[in-house]
Amino acid sequence: MNRIVIVDDEQFVRKGIIALVDWEKINYHVVGEASNGEDALELILNEKPDVVLTDIRMPVFDGLKLIKKVKELAIKVPKFIIISGYNDFEYAQRAVRLSVTDFILKPIDKDELEETFMNLAPIIEREYLEERANQRFVNFSLYQRIIAEGNEPTTQELAVLTGDIDKRNCYLIIDIRENPLSDKADEQISRAISDFIGDPYVFLHPFEHDHFGVILQEKHLPQNINEVTWFLSRLKSHLEKELGNQVFLFAGEVEAGLSGLLKSYQTALVTSERRYIQLDDHPLMYNDTIAKNHEENKPLDDQLITELIEKIEENKPKEIRKQVDKWVDEVLKSGTSVDSVKMFLFQLEKKLESTIHQLSGDEDAENELESLVAIFEQRKTLGELKQDLEVYVLKAGEVICKLSKERYNGDIYKVKRYINKHYHENLTLKKIAGKFFMNPVYLGQLFKKTYGIYFKDYLLEIRIEKAKQILRQTDMRIYEVAEQVGFGSPDYFVTQFEKMEGSTPSKYRQRIIN
C-alpha cells in the first residue's frame, strides 16, 4: 500500500482531505500530517512516504522550500502534489522547475483528487520494482563483502546495513519451505516485510536457493527483547499469507554495532542449523540451549541405526515405531545439526538398500522405497520428518519380510525374477520349467500357491503394465508396443488390454494426453 503524508497549515483542510477519500480503496495509507514545512520535513524523513500532498503557502517555510529540503536530505525523494490557488501562478512556475508531479487547485474536488492519486499509483509501482531490482544486486554485494567475508564497510554502506550503528540489529533468515517460488519472490518478501514493519527500506538479500537474509533494526523490533519471538510469529503468519508459502524463520542475537550485526548473522546461521531442537516450524531464536548444543556438537549414536534396522528386519511395527520415537527424542535432546540428521537418514537408506539387494540377489532390482534423503530435502519439520520416516521404515519392514519369504522359497523366486526380466520374449510355462529343471505342472501349482496368481495371468499383467508405461512415455504405434512387450498379435494385445483396463490402448493414451 502506498504511503502518503498530508501537509497544510489549516487543520480542518487536512482532516477534510483525509475524510474526503477512501484511501484504502485506492491503495493508499495516510501515515502522517503536518501543519508547517519544518514539521513536515521531519515527518517525511522519518516516515519515508511515497507521496506528499502539500499546500504551497505555509508558515515557517512554504511548500517549495519543503520540496528543496527533502531533495537535499532524503535518501528517497517522494512524489510531490501541490495544492494551490488561482493566485499562486508564480509559485506554480517555480514548482514546475522542482519537478512537482501534479497540481490540485482549491477548492479540492473529490473526483479530481482520487483520479490524481490513482494515475500516480502505477508510476510508483513501476519505480518501486525498478528500484528493488537494482537494490537486489547492491544488497547481495554488500552482504557477500561485509557480512559473509567480514570486510570493512564505508560509512554509507554501514548506514544501508544498520541505519544507526549505535542501535541494535537482528539478522533474520527466511527459509521458504515449499516450491516453486516465483521469479519475484524477493520483491514479494521485501514488500511483505516492509508492510508489516512500516518501513520500505529493509535490507534483504538472497544468499542460498530459497533462502533470504534480512536485517531488522532496533526501530523495527519490540522494545522488550522477550517479545521478539512473539513479533516473529506474527511476521511469519504475515509472510505466509502474502507468499502463499510456508516459511521457517531463524533469528540471531539482537546486538548493536557492526560487530553485533556480524555476531547476529553467525548466530542466525547456527539457529538454522539447529532447527530440529523443536518438532514444529515456530520461529526459532538463538538461545542458550542452541548455543550449548552447537558447542558440544554431539553426533547421533550409530547404535540408533543398528537397533532400528534390527526391528525393521524382524518386521515388528510396534517395535519399529518405538525406535523411531527414540530417535526423535535423541534429536530433540541433543539439538542435532541438520547435517547430522541428513547423514543418519542417508546411512539408514543405504544400509536398507544393501539389505534389499542382498535378499533379492539383483543389484538392478527396482527399489519399492522412496528415497529418504529426497524426503529430507523437502524442508520438513522434525515432526513431519518423523511421520515420513515411520512410513518409510514400516514399508521397509514389509519389503524385507516379503523378500525373505521369497528367498526362502528358493527357485520359485528365481522364476518370478526371470519372468520380470524376460516378459517381452515368447515365454511359456513349459519353456521356463525346462530352464529351471522343473515339472511344468508342479511349477504352475507352486507359482499359484506362492504368489496367489496363475503364471499366465501374471505374465499378462506384467506385459500390460509395461505397455501402459510405453504408451505414456513414447509415441510408438500400437503394433510396435505389442511387439515390444511380447505379444505376437496386435489384435490379441488390444483385446487383452481392453479387457484389463476397460479401454483400448489408443483411448488410454488419448486420456493421458488430455
TrEMBL record:
Lineage of source species: Bacteria, Bacillati, Bacillota, Bacilli, Bacillales
Positions carrying 4-aspartylphosphate: 55
Stored InterPro entries: CheY-like_superfamily, Homeodomain-like_sf, HptR, HTH_AraC, HTH_AraC-typ_CS, Sig_transdc_resp-reg_receiver, Tscrpt_reg_AraC-type_HTH
One Pfam family named in its UniProt record: Response_reg
UniProt KW Amino-acid biosynthesis keyword: no
Start and end residues of each HTH araC/xylS-type domain: 413-511
Subcellular location: Cytoplasm
Record PROSITE patterns: HTH_ARAC_FAMILY_1, HTH_ARAC_FAMILY_2, RESPONSE_REGULATORY
Native source species: Amphibacillus indicireducens
Entry coiled-coil feature ranges: none
Protein name: Response regulator transcription factor
Keywords: Cytoplasm, DNA-binding, Phosphoprotein, Transcription, Transcription regulation, Two-component regulatory system
Domain Response regulatory span(s) in chain numbering: 3-121
Keyword Signal attached: no
